Amino acid sequence: xxxxxxxxxxxxxxxxxxxxxxxxxxxxxxxxxxxxxxxxxxxxxxxxxxxxxxxxxxxxxxxxxxxxxxxxxxxxxxxxxxxxxxxxxxxxxxxxxxxxxxxxxxxxxxxxxxxxxxxxxxxxxxxxxxxxxxxxxxxxxxxxxxxxxxxxxxxxxxxxxxxxxxxxxxxxxxxxxxxxxxxxxxxxxxxxxxxxxxxxxxxxxxxxxxxxxxxxxxxxxxxxxxxxxxxxxxxxxxxxxxxxxxxxxxxxxxxxxxxxxxxxxxxxxxxxxxxxxxxxxxxxxxxxxxxxxxxxxxxxxxxxxxxxxxxxxxxxxxxxxxxxxxxxxxxxxxxxxxxxxxxxxxxxxxxxxxxxxxxxxxxxxxxxxxxxxxxxxxxxxxxxxxxxxxxxxxxxxxxxxxxxxxxxxxxxx
Length: 413
Hints:
It is built from 14 helices and two strands; from the N terminus they run αααααααααααβαααβ. The protein is elongated, with a radius of gyration of 27 Å. The protein has two domains: 2-272, no CATH class; 285-412, no CATH class. Strands 1-2 form a two-stranded parallel ribbon. By secondary structure, the protein is an all-alpha fold.
């Protein structure tokens, strides 16, 4: 039952994270609040899809013969193992950009009043977590030596969900000890251990079906030291695939599993490095208090100029990460116009700053470039709100660029 509680806990926290990101984003604006009913509709639809998958699996199992059920249980354990590994690898590669990707997708749907699209986005996200939970639970329970009663499973699942709510609340509070990064790191290890246990349980069934040869059985006998019938040995058997007397084929498959997992994680970490760097740079121009909007008497043009230049440097870093590094001979105007020509230049329509001397039809690139020139060569022309306007313009540009299918990396002259 420990496996059931752990799986429900881990998957529920991830589902709460997805829903929490979208909920916070939608509540931040009056336009977004119109999408809250569609958000909850998507959550409900996703749960219904996961429930339908559970019923299908139960129905298939009831139709099969005894030998057919052995085959089905072995295949479900293998499928659950594969899903766990795929999920861990995907989170390793995309976890840092998950918030940005979800908000970007929601922004596209809300911006065009595509509420059904928002519902579908949430439904797919929740259904994915729910279906993974169903497959994990099904494969785990069928592979367990002592599955227990239905009541015990339900209690374990409810306990896991309650723990998920508490965990999510603690993670949202933030802190040095309990952080999202450490949560995913710890559960990543536990999930991979559990996937290894599912793989070993599948080999048990395949050996009993005379499909998988043992090669040598057993390789060793450590039951005198650590028995799998109870205590620590049973915990290791359930969560890590420990066997007191394994067959050689099981041992080789288990070793191959960890070798493949290590390779996939290294590959995902390398592929996620640009995304991590991109998120770090985007964080440097994230929403900040509008310290430069206020009385002319308290406005510091030099400080405003420094912030605008820092914002421009961040944009150059993002362009370099996305494959377009600025050449030394390229002027800021040439550089930015080349990028907007390929990736787009949205309108700057934030009413907080009025025209700010750039005109009502100014684009985000116009505003950023004009403010950058003032910051470099004419700080006296800067006014309260200039640095914040530069950040807004930069975020508007980068949000458009990040959704654009970019060409092959190169360098602009």
